[in-house]
Amino acid sequence: MSAESVHIRAMTAADVDRVLEIQSELPSAPHWGRQAWVDAFDLGAAPRRIALVAVEMPGASAAPQNCGEIFGFAVASLLPPEGELEVIAISQERQRLGLGRLLLGALLEHVRRAGVVELLFEVRASNLAAMGLYREFGFRQVGSRAGYYANPVEDAMLMRLELGSVPGRE
After folding, report:
1. DSSP secondary-structure letter at 15?
2. What domains sit in the chain, N to C, each tagged with a CATH number?
3. Active site residues
């Protein structure tokens, strides 16, 4: 899959079943209920969120809103000037292809336009691949939370990004 065949767009109600399917195959992803996902793209919900999905487009002439399979999603909550990356996930069969990088880059652009200048999040201490990706974007570890995650119990690494420091995005 190439970057040209990927379309990143706002999440809609029609996407929730596929998002639930992806989260169910990823043990380390947050397992939100249907209503939590609906609230993620509800512009009237508090806190306000940006919820994106990544879609594989079958052909260059296809309309992005009408086709393609969702393979990833990301959600960030917004309390400008701060924000929190709540989840970013890529389906198991599409991991390690650079697609998380595309999705994260798009999400960072959206949160910046929303007035966020500092983004925080937690990541499992064992998720070295994710931490490497986040560091590529300029995130820095600023702390830890002992026993933060369950199933299995694991520490969380607290990471922070000052959006003005995103490489290649000034």
Report:
1. G
2. 3-165 (3.40.630.30)
3. 122, 134
